[in-house]
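G., before I forget:
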Amino acid sequence: MRASRFFISTLKEAPSDAEIISHKLMMRAGMIKRLGSGIYTYMPMGLRIIRKVENIIREEMNRAGAVELLMPVVQPAELWQETGRWDKMGPELMRVKDRHGRDYAIQPTSEEVITDVVRTEVKSYRQLPINFYHIQTKFRDERRPRFGLMRGREFTMKDAYSFDRDAAGMQQSYQIMYDAYVRIFDRFGLQFRAVAADNGAIGGSGSHEFHVIADTGEDALVYCPDSDYAANIEAAEAVAPSAPRAAAAQALTKTPTPGKAKCEDVAKLLGLPLSQTVKSIVLAVDREDADAEVWLLMLRGDHDLNEVKASKIPGLGAYRFATEAEIVEHFGTRPGYLGPIGTKKPVKVVADRTVAAMSDFVCGANEEDFHYIGANWGRDLPEPVVADLRNVVAGDASPDGKGVLAIQRGIEVGHVFQLGTRYSEDMKATYLDESGKPQLMQMGCYGIGVTRILGAAIEQNFDDKGIIWPTAIAPFEVVLCPMGYDRSEAVKAETDKLYAALQASGVDVILDDRGERPGVMFADWELIGVPHRVVIGERGLKEGKLEYQGRRDPAATAVAVADMADFVKARIAA
Amino acid sequence: MRASRFFISTLKEAPSDAEIISHKLMMRAGMIKRLGSGIYTYMPMGLRIIRKVENIIREEMNRAGAVELLMPVVQPAELWQETGRWDKMGPELMRVKDRHGRDYAIQPTSEEVITDVVRTEVKSYRQLPINFYHIQTKFRDERRPRFGLMRGREFTMKDAYSFDRDAAGMQQSYQIMYDAYVRIFDRFGLQFRAVAADNGAIGGSGSHEFHVIADTGEDALVYCPDSDYAANIEAAEAVAPSAPRAAAAQALTKTPTPGKAKCEDVAKLLGLPLSQTVKSIVLAVDREDADAEVWLLMLRGDHDLNEVKASKIPGLGAYRFATEAEIVEHFGTRPGYLGPIGTKKPVKVVADRTVAAMSDFVCGANEEDFHYIGANWGRDLPEPVVADLRNVVAGDASPDGKGVLAIQRGIEVGHVFQLGTRYSEDMKATYLDESGKPQLMQMGCYGIGVTRILGAAIEQNFDDKGIIWPTAIAPFEVVLCPMGYDRSEAVKAETDKLYAALQASGVDVILDDRGERPGVMFADWELIGVPHRVVIGERGLKEGKLEYQGRRDPAATAVAVADMADFVKARIAA
């Protein structure tokens, strides 16, 4: 490609609504252009990256035996009503009426449509398993679209759906997709991690998220450096302390803690470690024809509640945080001084595994400006119901017993999910088994956020000059920067020769023939993030040399003119 | 591709809602699947064809210097309001509100968005010309979606938009696109014709439609076999008869024609050629604060009104057909016996060029059951206003004076259009010229109906067995049909060898390893329309032969095993 036949548009400053680095850099590099809230035009430079991402996904999906089709963007409401998602999905599902007043959804995913295709196309066990995918425009009417392509409303997603005869088959299809995802993210050239994820309300036996590692990631990824264990923090188990609970050593004593409503402040006042304190979190579960049921969850002062884990405690499935009125009614005091001892009305107490192993702990005394010290289970209050309630922290024991956990930040870009019969039941997607009996199909679904990959890749790979693309998904693999293409015959001749040689070898090369000054040219391509650059100048040519510089290289390398094509190819292949 | 890893689903009968052959065959061949009215899932077999069509378009657009980007499906109403199309487009424009009640259009085309991109990105004459295109999902809420992909609601379109400094530049960009379209349709391997089209309300200096030739086409294409002249029938000029009007020979005579309200019946009754009769078409133009103005258009009995030409007559821009009440009021009688002589109230008369050259003609007498014979201009009624009002017919003189016209049917699949400043004016899309003055950009737009190509290609290429794809856009170039792939070692070995050899040569080959009976296999691939087939059987192998058959060949050709790969490649290249 010659730059003069392409469209390059860079900005010195990012627009003020760009909050994060990937959004800023994509806007500055002219890769996307905002059309409306969460809606972007993919400019030529951005579209090239999207196409490369799509092609890698397509190749690996095909290799894994998935078959590509294309489902419509505008989908009849009837199918969404069959699964109940028309009502459940709320305003995120963009709805539209046609000229006859019929309802349609603009697809955010396509479980309903693919299940409809398969239930009519697949009759027999002989046609299973089958895995269909498409790469298509999606729309989610996010409440607060932001971060450019990271949380847009219109985006491109690859979604695949497997259909199997039974759960064992589904698990096999799932594993094939998992392996394909590993190959896909490997080929992108991104650092990533697959983590076990929570299955949410769907249940089922398995779900993994694929995250691009980035310090700016929204998600906390838990992993064990000494083993294969890895999970989203929502799903990571905090194992019970291995040491038994120490015997009580202190007497229960009510202590004044005036104005100290937080564990940190109480610990400081009392000169105790934060890990000796216990915090009280009050939840409520609404009941028909009765007041809400009030629950008290107890966590160590330095730990955080894991809301997903809380929702899995029997009876807490539909919890909410208690109101101040409910708290005062049950505890006789306001938040900040709550505890399990001497509540005004009975509450259901659940202690985190760590808390259950504590002795001589500090907790609120249910009286304003007072805490207890020296509280002990079985003596001052009954032995509690125990559950895993907290987020793990770095240094916790790994659930597989093979070391301690570490935490890093990630950006979710893929998700594989064992759906079981969640959709096939509602939509009566059955096949006839060997004995001619109808059986529900077992489904899996597998998504990759194509456009999100761009944002995530940048969050992982940038410096103060701009983006640093991995070669596999760079808009161009190499840029040729001639110094005076229109002025110097020698420069033009050598540039054209190298350009032709690289093109002939299948290298995706752009020749910057715009006639810009070197400073502008270099700044543009560093901002855009092309990973390999060759400078062709008269001075170098006099010595028979061209200058190569990798985007991460601290300095340029002089390479003999005749060797440059091979040198570049070797660097691309590296 | 192995058939066992693909998805093949054929039907013996087309669903009853499929009216035309291309729709029936695409449904039967498992290429598309109906999701809703005018909304189809592109099944794997259909998607392969779409991708091949897209790739040819993409290559030729890029070669012509157009730059690909991707504009959103969901577009803010504000831009559509700037050009007035939000109001003008009516219910065909699918509209949707987001969670905040803001209005959006689901794009039917993207003039507004691209003009918005360019007016902010392009500042200087140095950046022009530029031509952007995208291949994207479109939606038009057709009143009566039908014919499968031919008139769907959701479809895929390639739309390109050129921006130039001035009209001369626009015409140059237009010619580049015209030439690219010729290459694209040539590469598809379809018989096509580019015809001059009417510019509609936009005006401007040029517009051509690209039609795939098919007897079942909706459009009539006019061309001169002896010259380059070609036009849509809407735009084809009917030149005035070259012979001067003959002198009046008959007296004007009112003749009873009881119950004969049609020219055909009157001519028969009177024993005159139909070409001696004149029909009267009554139009009305509404006026503010006054009754509608009534016009009488006169055409020869065997000619048809061209409504586009009528709308271009000064004063008739917004005509409608007159009501029966208006007709009775002005002519004193009901339709069937109307004429220009002795109307009850004055009407504006326009005669078609052919009619203006007639003498001794027959027309209605403005009295029920009576016509005049022997009517003559300048004697029985004033010389008329003359205009080209009719559709041309085969045998008419070509407007370029180089022969006579022929007519064939076509399916419109592409349109190139000189827009001028239609959009840049409304949206203030200006650039700074050499002297720093803002100037309006001159635009062109260029569409190809990607999914429509499939329907059109089939309407042109089918037989009683199914579809016959041109090789360039066939879902597969060649199918290998082994007789007993799983039973015969020899068959399997030779099939695998040929499969590998063809794949290594870049041939898009499918190996039918489904284990179907030969009859089923052949019927499927003839229906699907793969253009080249090789049968590998034990009987042939004993003589060292395989069987090749082109989809249009009346019989198979025996080819030596070792020669088959080259033979197939030669046939594909032919």
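The domain at 3-237+407-458 of chain A is CATH 3.30.930.10 (BirA Bifunctional Protein; domain 2). The first helix of chain A runs from residue 21 to 28.

More on Monday.
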